[in-house]
Amino acid sequence: MKDICCIGHITKDKIVTPNRTVYMAGGTSFYFSYAINQLPKDVTFSLVTAMDPTEKEPVEKMLKAGIDVSMNASRNTVFFENIYGENQNERKQRVLAKADPFTIQQLEHVDAKVFHLGSLLADDFPTEVVEYLSRKGRVSIDVQGYLREVRDEKVYPIDWKEKLKVLKHTYYLKVNETEMETITGLKDAHEAAKLIHAWGVTEVIITLGSEGSLVYVDDKFYEIPAYPPHEVVDATGCGDTYSAGYLYKRLQGATPTEAGKFAAAMCTIKLEHNGPFNRSIEDVEKIIKK
């Protein structure tokens, strides 16, 4: 029995900028796992992923880094192409290959207090899989992948058709302000959090960029500050880093405020460099104290 099990595909990412083209591993489960692996092992962790077995180099690197990974075979590895122009905020995204959805059979021998589902595309986790996991532990979802639909390789933002069926089995839900508005139709974070809670989510986490974040649980709102980075180098995986820090602290008994501050400080460090979070818990605590 692990404290946290992250379930999600690792991707092949092709990053195209005006200056160069880079190939690298990525995905929610990739950034979440490396972030939590940097922290003391007070919270036990495992990753369940799925890839084309001929492309398992990222999994082998994770095992060498001390991450507990089990890999299921998939016909393909998820393959994202991200093309950036001179303006880094403008991105064209294509999905060149999709992995097989996760199944109940793959997860029958997995036990954890919290299952964090790292969805990348809308069909990664069928509703029956979420319902099954909710009977074994608390389900945590980062909504981003549920709002991406692929048609002819192109990615389209969509509302989440199965949200009411899935959210009634969800304990933790993390959304950013754009995702919040997409699934609720509301611009006010407090009102959106109440609505998501009414749909069945126990603990609602809304990240608001430089405005910080908001947690709603037990009919209370907790306002979390943001810690400004020295410079923004790479925002990829920032939300996954937040989820890792937040769940890590909550499972140690921290309050929503304490967990949110810890998660926000981890994000600040992540923003300041390329790749996954790679610093220590002491570095995180220094930012909170300042």
TrEMBL record:
<dbReference type="Pfam" id="PF00294">
    <property type="entry name" value="PfkB"/>
</dbReference>
<dbReference type="InterPro" id="IPR029056">
    <property type="entry name" value="Ribokinase-like"/>
</dbReference>
<dbReference type="GO" id="GO:0016301">
    <property type="term" value="F:kinase activity"/>
</dbReference>
<keyword id="KW-0808">Transferase</keyword>
<keyword id="KW-0418">Kinase</keyword>
<dbReference type="InterPro" id="IPR011611">
    <property type="entry name" value="PfkB_dom"/>
</dbReference>
<dbReference type="GO" id="GO:0005829">
    <property type="term" value="C:cytosol"/>
</dbReference>
<protein>
    <submittedName>
        <fullName>Ribokinase</fullName>
    </submittedName>
</protein>
<feature type="domain" description="Carbohydrate kinase PfkB">
    <location>
        <begin position="3"/>
        <end position="276"/>
    </location>
</feature>
